[in-house]
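Handoff note, outgoing to incoming analyst
You'll be picking up this chain. Sequence as last confirmed:
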Amino acid sequence: MTGLVLGIDIGGTGSRVALAALDASAGRLTDVGADSDTVPDSDKDCIATLGTLTGPGVSIGADGSNAPQLIRRLVSAAREAWPEHLDSVRGIGIGATGIASLSTDIGELARSFAAEAKAETAVAIDAVTAHLGALDGRGGAVTVLGTGAIAIAHPGPDSQGLLLPTWTRVDGWGHLFGDRGGGAWLGRCALEVALKCHDGVDVRGARLLDAATQRFGDPETWPAQFYTRDDRAGLLAEFAVDLANLVRAGDPAAAELLATAGREAARSAIAAGRSAFPTDRSEILGIRHGGDAPLRVALTGGLRQAGEALIDEFRVEAMRLSAEASVVEPAGDPLRGALTLASHAADGRVRPQPGVLWM
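Most recent structure output, in case you need it:
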């Protein structure tokens, strides 16, 4: 065991920090204090045995993200909770939504955290830590569906174990221009279908119209509710919850919308993979990595909970676009990915990339 790492995950609705141990012989994260005779192998990498601390979500205003303040609060909370361990932390991995909106230099921010904590520190957009968590640090493409949507791909560690600056992202353009398949996108599409029913254009959205009216009131009031609010993406994503309930109740219009979201997510993942795994073959979507290994593709994020229709369509569309794609279940969450990033930082095995990852 060569030391400890700290992982920090900062999202729009909450934040978390966890502590884990580095096992040099295994080349992987282990659990501080875990009994290896009683903890199943499948669970050992998922337990933050010193506990996981939680905090508020990030907010973004005219001056950018308040992620730096949240990071400091979480590190301070960790120091108070685990005072006997924090001096042994060798690496810190941070994934934060909205971090790229900072007006200050994020590289300087990462270096200041490293100096304060006396530990190598890597700060990344939240899609990076979602990727590292979902694919357990290996290469592949991941689409993250939450309120927004972004796909990101990376070939994985090179022969020396380095995470090189070759991250490729697709979408993540926000609810006005993109975020295809995300919660806000899905909510907006559902309201469009509901309004078509309201206007007598297409009656198939009747149950969506009923659900939307229950949540938002008379459709005549919707423009004023949405167009004047700076949190409309979250408001739209709330309706995705109602849509998921209608899918479970058997509404075909809602089910088709959810399936469409799955297909959009798959298209983004394959497009990201295509860029990260270049090929000179004419079948450019037949992507391989590591000899005969297929391209690993995963869907992660809170919207996965919307139902099997989303996940099934993601799988079907990904395999339709690339016969060599292997759709896998997420191995872990973004907090797990932050710990993985921390382990790479601790051993000097990660390189910065503008707009994506800073050190």
